[in-house]
Amino acid sequence: MSMLTPPGMGGKYKVTGAAYPRMSRPRRRRRIVLLVLGSIIGLALIAYGAVQLIDVFGGDADKRRTAAAKGCATPAPKAGSTASAAPAAAAPKVVLPPPGGITVNVYNATPRAGLAKAVGDELKSRGFAIGKVGNAPADFDKKVPGAGILVGSPQTDKAAFSVLGTNLAGATQQTDTRETGDIDLILGDAFKELTPKADADKALAALANPQPAPAKKC
Questions:
Q1: What's the DSSP call for residue 114?
Q2: DSSP 100
Q3: What span, in angstroms and rounded, lies between the C-alpha atoms of 3 and 75?
Q4: Which residues have a Cβ under 8 Å from the Cβ of 47 and sit 6 or more positions away?
Q5: Is the pTM of this model over 0.70?
Q6: What is the per-residue DSSP string for 2-60?
Q7: Exposed (0-12), middle (13-18) or buried (19+): which is 154, by Cβ within 10 Å?
Q8: What count of other Cβ atoms lies within 10 Å of the Cβ of residue 124?
Q9: 113 vs 152: CA distance, rounded Å
Q10: What is the signed CA dihedral for 60, 65, 68, 69, rounded to 10 degrees?
Q11: What is the dihedral of CA 138, 139, 141, 144, to 10 degrees?
Q12: Within its chain, how far is the Cα of 15 from the centroid?
């Protein structure tokens, strides 16, 4: 065996000087290629999953926005309609009894003399029908700390209370056992004067023509 023969070859390969046996390293190219392909596929799957999540959440948000827009959208005009926009529905007009249809009994529950007559005359000039005028019954005499009390039957039209009440701010309402439709106006210690006629007329007009509810803002 020649001294140039690599050990362990047992003389299988003979070095002649013209050629030498090549000892190649194990190739890892296939492993590297597989690792690179695996990494690319993994990144692709992660990116696809992220896109799907964005679509899901983005789609839900779009649906919510669309639903909210539908709730505030103005309905499209009908074919052939010339109106550009439908006006807000006006509140129905309230039918109130006229002052002449309300009989008012004026009673004075204060120590001031002649108060009931003076107030009765003023209400009469405003169109109310005046019934009894005098001192308040014992149940109310000197026992009304406020401006006044309106007393009527439980069957009395509530609108009649409202019409009379426009002439005395702060008056409270009560009912008793009477069966007639008249209303007692009992003047209390805090009474100074009736509401000015101009202000009472404005309040009466507001009762007859209530303002429509404000439109919903989107």
A1: T
A2: G
A3: 104
A4: none
A5: no
A6: -TTSPTTSTTSS---SS-----PPPP-HHHHHHHHHHHHHHHHHHHHHHHHHHHHHHHH
A7: exposed
A8: 15
A9: 24
A10: -140
A11: 180
A12: 101
* 51-79 pLDDT, tens digit each: 665 655 555 555 566 655 565 555 555 65
Q: 181: Cβ–Cβ under 8 A, 6 or more apart, which residues?
A: 103, 152, 153, 155, 156, 157, 160
**By the 8 A CB rule, do 150 and 171 touch?**
yes
Calculate helix-pair angle for 197-208, 158-165, nearest 10 degrees.
150
pLDDT (tens digit per residue) in 75-90:
555 655 555 455 556 6
Cα of 63 vs its chain's centroid, Å: 22
Identity (one letter) of the amino acid at 193? E
In the structure encoding, which two tokens stand for residue 87, read together?
A: 């006006």
Name the amino acid, one letter, at 126: R
Please give the structure tokens belonging to residue 42: 């993994």
Sheet arrangement for strand 172-175: 129-135, 103-108, 183-187, 148-152, 172-175
* Amino acid at position 93, single letter: K
Helix H or strand E segment including 64: helix 29-72
Residue with tokens 């000892």: 23
Residue 153 CB-density burial (10 A; 0-12 exposed, 13-18 middle, 19+ buried): middle
| pLDDT tens digits along 138-178 | 999 999 999 999 999 999 999 999 999 999 999 999 999 99
Integer CA distances (angstroms), 181 to 107, 139, 152, 178, 184, in order: 17, 20, 7, 8, 10
